[in-house]
Design brief:
The complex is a heterodimer of chains A (825) and B (245).
Chain A (H helix, E strand, L loop, with lengths): L13 H9 L6 H11 L3 E5 L6 H15 L11 E4 L3 H17 L6 E4 L5 H9 L4 E4 L1 H8 L4 H4 L5 E4 L9 H16 L4 E6 L5 H7 L14 E5 L7 E4 L17 H10 L3 E4 L3 H14 L6 E4 L5 H12 L5 E4 L14 E5 L5 H8 L11 E5 L3 H15 L13 H14 L4 H8 L10 H13 L13 E3 L5 E3 L2 H8 L10 E7 L5 E9 L11 E4 L2 E8 L3 E6 L19 H12 L9 H13 L8 E8 L2 E6 L5 H17 L4 E6 L4 E5 L8 H4 L7 H9 L1 H13 L21 H11 L4 H14 L2 H11 L3 E5 L7 H7 L9 H18 L1
Parallel strand pairs in A: 1-6, 1-7, 2-4, 2-5, 3-4, 5-6, 8-13, 9-11, 9-12, 10-11, 12-13, 16-20, 21-25
Antiparallel strand pairs in A: 14-15, 16-17, 18-19, 19-20, 21-22, 22-24, 23-24
Chain B lengths: L15 E2 L5 E5 L2 E5 L5 E3 L4 E4 L6 H7 L8 H16 L3 E4 L9 H4 L2 H10 L4 E5 L14 E3 L2 E3 L2 E3 L11 E3 L4 E7 L2 E10 L4 E2 L10 E2 L14 E5 L4 E4 L8
Parallel strand pairs in B: 5-6, 6-7, 7-8, 10-11, 11-14, 12-15
Antiparallel strand pairs in B: 1-2, 2-3, 3-4, 4-5, 9-10, 12-13, 13-14, 13-16, 16-17
Classes of the chains: A alpha/beta (825), B alpha/beta (245).
Chain lengths: 825, 245
């Protein structure tokens, strides 16, 4: 044990010290340090890898305090509130906490409360609060919108925020930060405790955890940093497949036999993939090879909850040899016996990978083992770069977050539902939260007006205010109905509309439910087509309002939708490392022979750019001309870049026809040659000015982000399953609202929110901006007479992508042509 | 998934694309032009027909505390005025549900009211009543009627069940959904079998009902043609190209 000398010897009461002893444990330094910080009433952020006794470190001070409190005449309020990003994790921690409480014979009640908690228990928790309540950010937001929230939380001594690294840079994190600020007002002595996995910059999280009233803006973070032990570095290998590494594709089909052999040698393996399609595909492939009938299961967000629970239970009992899963298993819940993590296709970021690897071996003293399986040649570079970054203990960083105003609107409404508020006092309180530290008074006022009247220049709703300022200067909710409606719409999670996949019964009736898919998932399929879902092949029979009807098609070869890639963007940090690896020829020895040959060919036929340069190739092919650039900035940023480039190329007379993007590069093709295009002008930073504005205003992405903001801000109500109106004229669509608002009040608060969301989340404008700055004067142009080795993967993706822009009109026009053909046949 | 989906290929429809992007078709001998705006022009009578404007739908939600942008009436009027200015019709016929509710006329801003009054200058306004506005407007210029005839055509708000040769109606807010490998579009549309026609909703906030919905079953003598509203053109889309939601 490291230098315990600095810590007072009496930190642990005898009962606790004995308990550690009977279990054969010694308290870890960071656990004791958390006790010491609590004794000084300091806020603390504990950063420790998985398996470091992190959760216990967070709870230990509370357990000690609770065990020492004197008897009381009246029921006491909640002492410690624990917030987890996942319902399942809250329930899991409740179970884990029961052990020390029971074994030490402590009189402490710890209970979870999630969306699944029964009404009776919820009611009891309200009347007679447990000592420790374990819940989620959404439930906390509901608590804070209660009448009487202040009294309920006035004795709150500690709030523990688990897995903060997954929350702090999201809208859920914004909402949670606001609620923490609220709780701190209710209970000024509240102590904040954060638990996080290893991150690039702990100060970002320390600031997110908030400030104290009256603290200066430039004061250092008020939260102490406690570092857990580093843990044994994981052993990461990249599968250098015996089959050739494919040029393109995302399925890693070429390596599946090797993956199966690796699974056979492991005790239990988690096989992570990036998309549900990949999960279904890998599961199918593994079972095709599964001669030993190993128990291999599938787990992803589209499966029916019951089916997922079955897999989780089998896993907990140690009955499975492998689970193919998506990010649904990224977090927290301890399943013990996993000894190998396999990442199929590229990891996209070093930090996420470390999280996933952490799922193997929840013990500190043994190294976790992981195997990366690249699906194509660029991914081979990426996997090697990620492996090296992890070995050097280097991570990607999230930039500090500025809180979203739609979430602020929801929070302000929640505050009014709970009790009347004074605008100035609430403004001061909000600014103690990390994400809203720099909130301007004007923005705050605008949001309050939005909550009250919708905030329109046309003051149409002043008579119908949702919150009203009284004679006493305090704002309160208009009536009980307003409050009820707010409560039904609390939370920052937006789930896309989902359809149930059901087996078609007789007469086209919907039968047993197989799972759920997001709207649009099966868009490319026609009735009669076959696809893989929940590990089986199905034939699509039709889609009704809420159901996808299917019949089993076990023997057929599925028409797998050609949906590739990852929803995660390649991290900036990892992209840089990929560029470095690519440029450093001495480094190529870590790559398999065929990938090395590919790089050498590229060097000889075109060129390999330096780490800080961007390569642009132009060449003719067939009747078209191609321009391929390699920024390595992720699919999102590339799509944005390509949209803007084609607008400019159009003006330059190149007559661009289409483009395709992946995480590494983008290709544009055109009618006219692009060899002579002025690349400095094409990639000028002013691209992000008017061109961006024009394109964004029309894009479906703005509509999508507007809808999200409108729901979170309470303009549009959530649709609950089963509550959809059957009538049609009575509903309205967010798209119509967007069009009208954009035409008549383009500067409205919600359009501002939507633009900011689209710019960060959907089109990654910041990253395009940084990239354009990075490559100024560093563009290397290779004019070629035919395609280059690097460009092959791009050209292979052509035809699988949707063509954006005027596509909607084109689809209609084509349908009209079909009709003419129909008519003249 | 209606019975219509399984009927054999329909006989060709006779229609023509007009230079303005509209789609021209005859119903009971009456020459009609479907406009990309969603309005219908009866060429012989110089009558502009619009359905389901739902004026003040935004403020109807607003009264209940859901503050939709209060610009829907203004937006609908912008488009209606543009049609009137471009086509100079002698009559403007509103096919019912022009107002979202019985009190909507009272909530019109004075500006919007003035614009409606100005619209009646030099032409007649005819307000058919609908289920949302059973009494029609009380103070605005124009005549309020239940149904009317226009030559061989019968105009009413809600389509009558069964085959109704010569009927023009609204109420259902028809909408066409077309999918291709590259994506899906859902647009308001005219729906017609050559003997009757259902107009798309013209109002800014009016939602749409897929023409494949059961509500349309039994209204058409044969699988109808959808005149889907494109940016500046009406696309004739056949039944087989349409998909359900």
């Amino acid at each position: 044990m490291a230098d315990d000398a600095a810590l007072p010897a009496d930190l642990l009461p005898a009962a606790f010290a004995d308990w550690f002893a009977t279990r054969g444990w010694a308290p870890r330094t960071h656990q004791l340090e958390m006790v010491a910080r609590a004794r000084d009433r300091r806020d603390a952020l504990l950063i420790a890898p998985t398996g470091g006794g992190k959760t216990l470190a967070g709870f230990l001070p509370s357990l000690i305090e609770l065990s020492q409190r004197p008897p009381a005449n009246t029921p006491r309020g909640i002492h410690t509130l624990y917030i987890s990003p996942l319902k399942a994790l809250a329930v899991d921690v409740e179970r884990n906490l029961a052990t020390p409480i029971r074994e030490m014979g402590l009189s402490i009640v710890a209970e979870s409360r999630t969306g699944d908690t029964g009404a009776a228990r919820r009611q009891r928790q309200r009347v007679k609060p447990p000592d420790i309540l374990l819940t989620t950010p959404e439930q906390l937001a509901l608590f804070c919108a209660w009448e009487g929230a202040r009294a309920y939380f006035e004795d709150l001594s500690c709030i523990i925020l688990d897995e903060i690294h997954t929350l702090h840079s999201t809208k859920r994190g914004d909402l949670l930060a606001l609620d923490i600020a609220r709780l701190q007002t209710f209970s000024p002595n509240l102590r904040r405790v954060g638990l996080s996995a290893t991150v690039d910059d702990p100060d970002v999280i320390r600031r997110w955890m908030g400030f104290h009233a009256g603290e200066r803006d430039d004061a250092p973070p008020a939260v102490d940093l406690v570092l857990g032990p580093a843990g044994t570095p994981p052993i990461v290998e990249v599968l250098l497949s015996e089959g050739r590494v494919p040029w393109a594709g995302h399925t890693a089909q070429h390596a599946m036999a090797e993956v199966y052999e690796v699974i056979k040698k492991a005790r239990t393996a988690l096989v992570f993939v990036n998309t549900r399609f990949q999960a279904e595909f890998a599961f199918q492939e593994l079972w095709r090879l599964n001669e030993d009938a190993l128990p291999i299961a599938l787990h992803h967000g589209s499966l029916a909850a019951e089916q997922r629970r079955k897999v989780e239970a089998a896993m907990a009992r140690g009955e499975l040899r492998a689970v193919v899963c998506t990010s649904t298993l990224d977090l927290g819940i301890d399943w013990g016996d996993v000894d190998l993590v396999i990442q199929l296709a590229s990891p996209k970021g070093a930090s996420r990978m470390v999280q996933r690897i952490g799922r193997a071996n929840h013990r500190m003293d043994e190294a976790s083992r992981a195997l990366f399986v690249p699906a194509n040649r660029f991914e081979m570079l990426e996997c090697q770069a990620a492996r090296e970054a992890i070995a050097e203990n280097r991570f990607d960083g999230d930039p500090p977050r500025v809180g979203a105003l739609d979430i602020l609107a929801q929070h302000i409404m929640g505050c009014a539902c709970s009790e009347p508020f004074d605008a100035l006092a609430l403004y001061d309180e909000i600014r103690t939260s990390g994400p809203y530290r720099a909130l301007a008074w004007e923005d705050f006022e605008q949001v309050v007006d939005f909550v009250s009247t919708g905030g329109y220049a046309l003051r149409a709703y002043d008579r119908f205010r949702r919150i009203v300022k009284g004679q006493d200067g305090l704002w309160r909710a208009r009536n009980a109905d307003t409050i009820l409606r707010h409560r039904l719409n609390v939370g920052a999670i937006l789930s896309p509309a989902v359809l149930s996949v059901r087996i078609a019964g007789r007469g086209g009736r919907a039968g047993r439910k197989v799972g759920e898919v997001e709207e649009g998932y099966l868009e490319a399929l026609e009735p009669g087509d076959t696809f893989i879902f929940a590990g089986q092949v199905w034939r699509l029979m039709g889609v009704t309002a809420l159901d996808v009807l299917v019949t089993p098609a076990p023997a057929s070869d599925p028409k797998l939708p050609s949906w590739g890639g990852s929803k995660f963007a390649l991290s900036t940090f990892l992209a840089k490392r990929v560029r470095e690896l690519m440029f450093d020829q001495a480094h190529w020895s870590v790559l398999p022979a065929d990938v090395r040959e590919w790089l050498e060919l590229q060097r000889d036929r075109s060129l390999i750019p330096a780490e800080d340069e961007m390569l642009v190739e132009t060449f003719p092919r067939g009747k078209r001309h191609f321009m391929v650039c390699y920024p390595f900035e992720g699919r999102l940023a590339h799509t944005t870049l390509a949209m803007l480039m084609t607008r400019r190329l159009e003006r330059m007379g190149a007559a661009p026809l289409g483009f395709v993007c992946n995480d590494y590069a983008l290709a544009v093709w055109s009618l006219n040659p692009m060899d002579g295009v002025d690349l400095d002008a094409l990639f000028d930073q002013d691209m992000l000015g008017d061109d961006l504005e024009d394109w964004l205003a029309e894009s479906y992405m703005m509509k999508r982000s507007f809808k999200g903001c409108a729901i979170l801000a309470g303009l549009i109500e959530r649709r609950f399953p089963g509550a959809e109106k059957s009538g049609r004229q009575v509903t309205f669509s967010a798209d119509l609202v967007y069009d009208v608002l954009r035409r008549h009040e383009p500067d409205h608060l919600l359009l501002r929110c939507a633009r900011e969301d689209a710019a960060t989340g959907l089109i990654d404008v910041a990253r395009v901006g940084h990239m354009l700055a990075r490559i100024q004067g560093k563009i290397r142009h290779a004019v070629l007479d035919h395609l280059s080795p690097f460009s092959v993967p791009m050209l292979l993706e052509i035809g699988k992508e949707r063509v954006p822009g005027a596509a909607g009109e084109m689809i209609l026009a084509e349908a009209a042509e079909d009709l003419i053909a129909e008519a003249s046949s | 998934m209606t019975a219509l989906a399984r009927t054999p290929a329909p006989a060709p429809y006779a229609f023509a694309q007009s230079p303005c992007g509209g789609l021209e078709m005859e119903i009971m001998g009456a020459a009609l032009r479907m406009r990309a705006s969603g309005a219908l022009l009866d060429l012989a009578h110089q009558a502009l027909i619009v359905a389901d404007l739902h004026f003040e739908k935004g403020s109807a939600y607003g009264m209940r505390g859901q503050f939709l942008p209060p610009y829907d009436t203004r937006d609908t009027l912008d488009r209606l005025e543009a049609e009137v200015a471009g086509l100079e019709p002698q009559v403007v016929i509103f096919l019912g549900d022009s107002f979202h509710d019985g009190r909507a006329e009272d909530r019109l801003s004075s500006d919007d009211t003035a614009r409606l009054v100005a619209l009646a200058q030099g032409r007649t306004l005819i307000w058919l009543v609908g289920n949302h506005d059973a009494d029609g407007p009380r103070r605005l210029p124009g005549q309020v009627v239940e149904t009317m005839t226009l030559g061989a055509l019968v105009l009413r708000h809600e389509p009558e069940p069964g085959e109704q040769p010569g009927e023009l109606s609204g109420h259902l807010h028809p909408c066409a959904r077309v999918s291709s490998g590259r994506g899906t579009v859902r647009r308001r549309c005219f729906a017609t079998d050559g003997t009757r026609m259902i107009l798309p909703a013209f109002g800014a906030y009016a939602g749409g009902l897929n023409v494949k919905d059961a509500a349309f079953a039994g209204l058409f003598a044969r699988p109808p043609l959808a005149g889907a509203l494109g940016r500046d053109r009406v696309h004739a889309v056949g039944w087989r190209s349409l998909t359900s939601d």
